Amino acid sequence: MPKVEVRKRLLVLEEIFHEGGPPRSDPHRRGAVLAVIRNPFAGRYEPEIQGFMDDLRPLGLEMAQQLAAALGGADRIEGYGKASLVGAAGELEHGALWHAPGGYAMREVLNGAKAIVPSAKKVGGAGARIDVPITHVNASYVRSHFDSIEVGLNDAPRADEMVVILAMTTGPRVHSRSGGLEASQIKGEDGLR
Fold first, then answer.
1. Tens of pLDDT along 122-146?
2. CB atoms within 10 A of CB 23
3. Distance CA 18, CA 147 (A)
4. In 3D, which of 59, 69, 70 has the Cα closest to residue 12?
5. Whole-angstrom distance, CA of residue 52 vs CA of residue 131
């Protein structure tokens, strides 16, 4: 399969002290790392594309390590998600190739997190933005960690590019009070509860 060609990367970090309620002394941190890569399948239909997932694995691992470190270390991460934006000469299925490399990379960096990594993907032009869904790393049903981060770049994806994205958070939403399963109640049996 073709070599992964990275044009640029972006690291986004947010510190949220309050959302109208009492300010926190330790802010909720949310971040994303984006890589703009050449889409080797742009402009044509290619029946066999799965091999590119293996080529993306090293990039996924590098991005997961960078993001976890930027948020204070893997032991602080409680939420995660992933996404991809595909340029107009590509197809949605090209973005789906990020599922395994992005998800497994975060699980490895986060010491075998159990929950499925939520994801989003779409085809869009330069400047397109995407909401990356986020859930708890060990139990998808922990409602306090249902979150998202909107990301994008003004000059990507170009028609022959893809933007691959990882997102992480350091805890629940800053003023979470919607009930449901709490992080302290996780059983860790199935990645759901």
1. 999 999 999 999 999 998 989 999 9
2. 10
3. 15
4. 70
5. 24
| Alpha-carbon torsion angle 68, 74, 75, 76, nearest 10 | 10
Paired strand residues for 15: 29
pTM of this prediction?
0.95
Query: Domain for residue 193, yes or no?
Result: no
Count of structural domains, the chain: 1
Helix (H), strand (E) at residue 33: strand 28-38
In a domain, 190, yes or no: no
Q: 26: domain CATH number?
A: 3.30.1330.110
Q: Which domain holds residue 83?
A: 6-185
pLDDT in tens, 166-184: 999 999 998 888 888 787 7
